[in-house]
């Protein structure tokens, strides 16, 4: 969408649902649109609008386009909870130079839950004459139905009927293997290339040209035609309770790292950097891994880089910035992470996408100094990361939203015209700092791949 493009005039109607629904069952089995964590989340059905962006201006352009769309929209919302009203789900590429599209998608129907409340939002393209007065003098979207003390209005449109869930489909599973190198035949295999990249990163760090480089690698497989993607999404949601499980435009995963959450002027984030593999089958060994993480100078140093990069990026946009006093161990089924939570209040009117653009890329997924680390990644990683370690989340008409770093994830490609099979590529990486050991870093990526390899297994 360019500045010269006509602004789509959308009409979003949100109504409560009288009964609970199983969100994931409503998702499209082959093209799910999902955002879920515990007793919160949503599922999109169909598409009313899709916006795409590429290049270094993708966040700025997306924020401006969404602000214009929200200002022109009619929003009739009797629920008024985070995630109600006009909503777009999105996923953004990691690199400025990536050929991968960053997208915002407005579903035709969005079925959502917040604890013990369920609702549905239907978004359509409004007739031109119906949207002439859709925004007030401030440019904010107008809510055309005002709820009374009971949360209902005197005369409202009924909630749209929900489609019947698709019956459970086949799940033959996916077998992953190290992704084939993208370069010439004389290039070392992808595992060797990754280990060589770690060694070269350590060499550059020792010479003082950079302090930290986040290096990743890829594994790949093939998803047979007709596979029901609700199966791996359900596994991720059930096992990774502290993560947001997501599926947006073929980007599927469960991320533990909140890049930004913005609600009514309150902002929060969670920074993760520093990792140890879990050993849940051996409690004593597992506790030892946690304690090693907490006492490792290398891991604490890496974590401090990541926290400082977020604090520095957020500072111009917020006030009363607070962080947890010390990093704490975050326990996930596959790994221990060092974690720090941040909270603040917005100092100016910034949308969630604008905050994402200010934060990205953090030291946790790029390195320090950022520009030097990004240049090293482009040189040492023999592939385009695509949306891996970019951002995935949602935004509403007020500019509030919730975005995570796209980690523990895989990207599905287009279906083969003859067989219908789809390529699946998963990515994982870690921060390389002074003293990093290539074999240890490789083992860390194996642990980080586990959420996807287990979710996509037979």
Automatic annotation (TrEMBL):
EC number(s) given by UniProt: 5.4.4.2
Annotated InterPro entries: ADC_synthase, Chorismate_C, IsoChor_synthase
Limits of the Chorismate-utilising enzyme C-terminal domain: 193-448
Enzyme class of the recorded protein, top EC level: isomerase
Gene Ontology MF annotations: isochorismate synthase activity
The reaction(s) this protein catalyses: chorismate = isochorismate
Pfam family, one: Chorismate_bind
UniProt keyword list: Isomerase
Region span, Disordered: 130-162
Name of the protein: isochorismate synthase
Organism listed in the record: Leucobacter luti
